[in-house]
Amino acid sequence: MSDKIFIKSRSDNKVYAVDKGNFDLDADIMVIFESDQCQEVAKVVGEAEAKNDELLVRDTADKVAVLIRRMNDNDKQADSKRREEATAFIQKCQEIIEKHKLPMELLDADLSFDGKKLTFYFTAPGRVDFRTLVSELASSFQKLIRLQQVGARDRARCTGGVGRCGQNFCCNRFLKGELECVSIDMAYEQNIGQMGSNRVTGACGKLMCCLKYELDFYKKAKKKMPAVGSSIKTPKGNGIVVSQCIMKNKVTAELQDKTYVEVDC
After folding, report:
1. For the chain, how many structural domains are there in total?
2. How far apart, in whole angstroms, are the C-alpha atoms of residue 242 and residue 210?
3. What is the pTM of this model?
4. Which SS3 state, helix, strand or coil, does residue 94 take?
5. Which of 198, 200, 178, 180 minimizes the C-alpha distance to 190?
6. CB–CB of 114/81 below 8 Å?
């Protein structure tokens, strides 16, 4: 697929394989593309990331995306105005939700680059029948309406806040729709999984995204250190490694007399 590149739509995170034409585009570059519904903003992603993404759109006749151009300064200004327009629609949408007494929390809105499609993001405790809502929103705003239910991570990204580190949430500050899978194994790899869920979960109640940031460092560092359970020689005699301190580059060993000694690696 050398004549193709992969782009991830900002509005719904779907990934499309598009003809790159004469464009020379690296990963993370923002582009404008056209789908069967409207013109939207997307980000170029690598092939490996795209093919592992469950939202990869398979090539079919009715799901064609066409790359228009790389975003220029004028496009970015126009897109910024669209974002402001989208925000202005939230209050009216909230009023209609309350009118129909729907059990959903409205979080954010996104307007396509050409202004034709309006996406509202919400959370709800379960499935919501919003067919009547969509009809009234389309009539009120005269746009193609899309409602997307999101999870706890996306909710935190939309609402924002401050994490235990004292910084604004990563998902809100710079991840921007690129929330990757985080597993408890990552916490154990960094020797903090055993500290309990409160130590490794964020404000959203899910595992902290930042567990992924230093994972490669920990994996490489641990390979250079004696493994837990292995035998080592220490200045005080032979011992069994019981723990590793990656940041100090030291291990703790239990000696035959049941005492402990910390050893530099």
Report:
1. 4
2. 26
3. 0.67
4. helix
5. 200
6. no
